Amino acid sequence: MQIVWFRRDLRLKDNEIFSVASHSQEVLPCFIVDPWFYQQPEIAAPRVKFLFESLENLDSNLRKCGSRLYLFEGESVATIQAITRSLLQLNQQPKLYFNRDIQVEYGMERDRAILDFYEQNNLAVHIGLNHFLQDKEDYDSLWRDYHHYQKQAIYPAPTRINTPELNLDLPQLTIAELKQKYSRFLSAQSYLYQGGEDNAVGTLKSFVSHRYQGYHWKMSRPWMAQQGSTSHLSAHLDFGTVSSRVIYQDVIEIEQSISQSKLQFSLKSFRDRLRWHDKFSQRHYFHPELAFKNRYPEFDEWYSPEALTGEKQELFQAWCGGKTGFPMVDASMRQLNSIGWMNFRMRAMCVTFLCINCGVSWHHGAQYFMSRLVDGNIAINHWQWQAQAGVTNPMSKTFRIYNPTKNLEEKDPYLQFVRHWLPELKQYSLKELLSGEYTATSTYPQPILDYKQTRKVNGKAVSDLRKKVRQRLETEGGEEYEQAVGAASTIEKYLAVKDQQYQEMKSS
Question: Which of 85, 215, 342, 409 lies 20 to 30 Å from 353, alpha-carbon distance?
Fold first, then answer.
């Protein structure tokens, strides 16, 4: 009996563990509904809803193959141990299959305990790859290995699976019972995303057929991004309803079939984003502490997870509710609160506004994002919060602070995005918004801070901390210094290549 433990790999196609296990005589596909998942502070209702949709679709696809998904409920370690003991009592010799994944402390301890249990009982375990996630921190060969992995043959979805009916005396749920028990999560609205492998396939198909056109510039325009100019595959990647290898190969196939440089540039830009996704996952796998700990200790007094009080708490609450008096920030936050999603450019803008202008630690904003995002990925979200807050890449003498007014003018000049999410500003023109003329007659809130002054004061404080880090690294040298220099060099090379590609695309 092969136990296939699905986690964030909720698909049949290009799923290593399921493909390998399904060649055996009997397979037990299962998912564990662990209460910890619903009790953590960073859970988002749209993400739970997406998970339920994905489980329902996985069960449906398994049933088409003559199998079904066993839904067990309980603490993961105890549940895996109980399943294994039950099969041993039935004279089975179970083998456990699961995919390597990024984790927080709970997940790492859980996996260690399960592996110890199987070793103590002389039972076999197969740990596979969900996307590209290596277990050795060898950055010299990492990206060579990455492209090699992405080009490998895709595991086909099984057509027939032998899953016997088992009467295991363990807490179980049907899909209907799961949805009823956790119905509080199902009212979440997220029309951009619907979970499940079938929906992932459809979303990918529509993207590579036409939606990718103009991706390289439309992805920064929040209204266009909301309407479908970005891939909308991020949540599917996070829950593994589609593999990054399937996406990579589909994109390469289209890229090679077209000759227009602008279309090729859009697809190359998307592949860059796909690679970044796996890069963030790889970093988190090696350094999970960076989800909560400042990359450099010099920032510990400035950025702290301690509870907010006084003015900072008031600023944070205004930011959360989309009531800062800065239209582009508020429209973005209301979009997040309503549909559980925001495009990358607006996420970066909202981060710098909270961390630099409001002076609130990235820890609070990162947790709030995770409590709302349908595509909340701890590896990407928390690191990007540190990056946009000015903590990372200290070898660069500058860091970016996004101006909400400039972004309004450049990224939403026709006010489609702002008017959609801020109906109280519908009657005002761009000129009136930029000049602030609307403040005397609108119910929209006054700005909660002086943007230029807070940028100057707090921006300098962060710049000074970056300088302290840079000076320490240059003095001490060593591995940390080499990594910082390497990161800065990689960013500079990347920007140079993208600029060259962009100039070539424009000239053609």
Answer: 215
